[in-house]
Amino acid sequence: MSAIFELHQIRQSFGGRTVLEVPELMINPGECLGIIGPSGAGKTTLLRILALLDRPAWGEVIYRGQSLNGAVPIEIRREITMVFQRAALLDKTVYENVEYGLTIRGIDDRPGVEDMLEMLGIAHLAQQPAISLSGGELQRAAVARALVIRPRILLLDEPTANLDPENVTILEKAIKRTITDDGTTVVLVSHNLHQIERLATNVAGVLDGEVVEHGPVQDVVHNATNPKLRAFVSGGISR
Fold first, then answer.
1. d(Cα 232, Cα 239) in Å, to the nearest integer?
2. pLDDT tens, 118-159?
3. Which of 30, 73, 163, 217 has its CB 3.0 to 4.6 Å from that of 167, i.e. a possible disulfide?
4. 214: which DSSP letter?
5. How far is CA 210 from the centre of its chain?
6. What is the pLDDT of residues 175-231, one digit of tens each?
7. Residue 108: CB partners within 8 Å, gap ≥ 6?
8. Which neighbouring-strand residues pair with 15?
9. In whole angstroms, what is the distance from residue 157 CA to residue 51 CA?
């Protein structure tokens, strides 16, 4: 199976300081890659590179066999969507926000929008202004907006951080459905290792700005070879 994303010798720097190094990372189509590591380790920086929001200072990003070192066509950008840890919605109703990605693509799919609102448990909020939502409702609306366009790549940065256990289950069910039904490739940053085990196929461990380990979830979470990563997953390093 050919990788959908390939990162080669990636280095990202800010203000002359290297904040992320990825020697090699392959992401396969239809997998859920979990990214774990302490706060400030470089996980969100990696997501932003995958989202094509930031260009690395060094190295090569290959997407579906195409090097993305130059200008990225809009068609490729529209295949990749990211839900940020602090979701931001437009000054519109919840329905209009969820529909927005379809609208800019010229797609009319009212049943799809309604189904997504129902699945994420926010159908009753459809005509409410997004500004009136709680943090958890805002996050579910942002995920609904991302899922309804059926992206090829879905990048999630702590998507359940503001959710109670019931809504965590709802959101995880939606993530699983987009993988199984739509073949979406998911990259998930989460401090919840149980969530990583429930959803991820493979895991990348990030420490001090470097991807130090990458492999099947069972191997990395339970049998990490890197001592610091092993300490992290056992609670020895602050998350």
1. 8
2. 999 999 999 999 999 998 999 999 999 999 999 999 999 999
3. 163
4. E
5. 18
6. 999 999 999 999 999 999 999 999 999 999 999 999 999 999 999 999 999 999 999
7. 102
8. none
9. 11
Residue 237 clears pLDDT 70, i.e. is over it: no
Cβ atoms of 190 and 204 closer than 8 Å: no
Beta bridge partners of 155: 82, 187
What are the C-alpha distances in Å from 138 to residues 122, 166, 187?
A: 10, 16, 20
Q: pLDDT (tens digit, 9 = 90+) per residue, 31-46?
A: 999 999 998 899 999 9
For residue 188, give the nearest of 140, 148, 155, 214 by alpha carbon: 155
> How far is residue 71's CA from residue 61's CA, in Å, rounded to a whole number?
12
Q: Which of 64, 21, 27 is nearest to 45 (CA)?
A: 21
Only one residue has tokens 């940053």, namely: 189
d(CA 43, CA 50): 11
**Full strand arrangement of the beta sheet holding 80-83:** 66-67, 58-63, 5-14, 17-27, 210-216, 202-207, 32-36, 185-189, 153-157, 80-83
Strand ranges in 53-103 using DSSP code E only, listed in sequence order: 58-63, 66-67, 80-83
Phi and psi based region of residue 236 (left: phi greater than 0; alpha: psi -120 to 50; beta: remaining): alpha
Whether 74 has a pLDDT exceeding 70, the answer reads yes
